[in-house]
Amino acid sequence: MGVETIDPKPRLRQPPPTHRVSPYFLRGVPITRVHQVWSTEITSGRLHGGFLSLVAGMDGCSRYGRSWAVSITMAVGFGLEALDHALEVARPDIFHSAQGAQGTRLDFTGRRTAEGMQMSMDGRGRALDNVFVERLWRTVTYEEVYVKEYETPREAMQGLGTCFVRYHEWRQHQALGYQTPASVYFGSYL
């Protein structure tokens, strides 16, 4: 009869064939040094008349945000901008991201492969893989974005710049022995 339900079917969201998914390589890997693992994550924040997309790349050992970028769209360009900015200084052994549309695009995965990084991606049920970047986003959104209610992207970038300095240079982390991310990152790097 051709009768079927209208509820969502399994596997409706298949990635396009040009997107490349990598396996998860962090299971059981202790992160003990700077530039061993970097993670990236995208989130959104409010503007007075819309939304803002934020991307950050963070060192897994020191919790230091290597780079960040802002966009009013979800185009891949701002993620590549943040990656290029981070790669000006160093390269990680493993670059970890989620399996979202941004992280699996060929131009993004191709850039990481060309730089000699091993790629790792979250799998199903791996909610805590990017917990450090998620914690950064929680701090940024609750202490900056929700409080300020930016009018323009330029205003948001200025406020976020101050917020990231505060997070890296002033905020002490219990997991880092009550040191700041900047002191751990640069102390290990120099």
Helix content: 25-40%
CATH superfamily: Ribonuclease H-like superfamily/Ribonuclease H
Strand order of the largest sheet: 3-2-1-4-5
Counted beta strands: 5
Strand content: 15-25%
Kindly report the CATH topology.
Nucleotidyltransferase, domain 5
Describe this structure as you would to a colleague.
The protein has one domain (37-189): Ribonuclease H-like superfamily/Ribonuclease H (Nucleotidyltransferase, domain 5), CATH 3.30.420.10. The mean pLDDT is 81. It has six helices and five strands, in the order E-E-E-H-E-H-H-E-H-H-H. The N and C termini lie far apart (71 Å). It has helices spanning 77-87, 101-104, 106-114, 131-148, 153-169, 181-189, and strands spanning 37-47, 50-59, 65-71, 94-97, 118-121. The chain has a five-stranded mixed beta sheet, with helices on both faces. The protein is α/β, with parallel strands linked by helices and 190 residues long. The longest helix is centred in the C-terminal third of the chain and has 18 residues, at 131-148. A hairpin with a 5-residue loop joins strand 2 (50-59) and strand 3 (65-71). The protein is globular and about 70 Å long.
